[in-house]
Amino acid sequence: MSRPDDVSLPLASSLQQVVGALVFGADHALTVEEIRKCLQEVAKLDSATAVFAAVAPRDVRDALEGISRELERLGLGIELSEVNGSFRFQSQAACGRWLHQLLGQDRPNRLSRPALETLAIVAYRQPIAKSEIEGIRGVTVDHILKALMELHLVRIVGRSDLPGRPFLYGTTASFLDHFGLKNLSELNEMDPTLQRSKAAERKAIHRKAKPVEEPQPELPGTPADATPAESTTAPDSDPVREVLGPDTPPPPDAEPIHEQP
Asked: Distance (Å, rounded) from C-alpha 142 to C-alpha 255?
């Protein structure tokens, strides 16, 4: 009777077969580099798999594209999705109502129109300050921004150099995952009439020009190697904590973050 260790497993016949198994078995979406690293590490342990160790990133992408085409041809209700540079299998949106029934899930909460408007402004104009968002929408957005941050759709990406040094907001990786986007460039394809602002141009708006420093005359009796006094400016506080603040309920007239069922 043979031992389990003596049983020889069949070798995968193609790179596409291996890549498909890795994406299916992973507990998170896989990047091309993660797949290549796994192929290389297995080759060190088993010389029979060395044929897959030298694959290039283009080869892995070709395998992924082949899997995507095959799933689309078979119409199995499953698709290969690329989100934020990583790949995963997921059910097709057209099958969602049956999955909700099978899993016993209620109707999912949907973002309200005010929340979507605020999120869209951040996505297309990031990095952006709260005052700019309020200037576009014409209403205060404190509650909406706080809720979007708690949902991990919006985050603080920096501070402006303008007076008051307001926080600058941008989207998160969860934003791409939530809306099924490969990257932010796909926002332009969703609606050709809306074009995402260039990040470099947006950052330039909030960057203060450095003043030309004029040489200061030396005061009598001041040593040439004297060092300036240390700044007593207090360091910035935790920006997320500063924005979120204590867990207080929104004001009665605050815009809703979710649609009413």
From this structure: 10
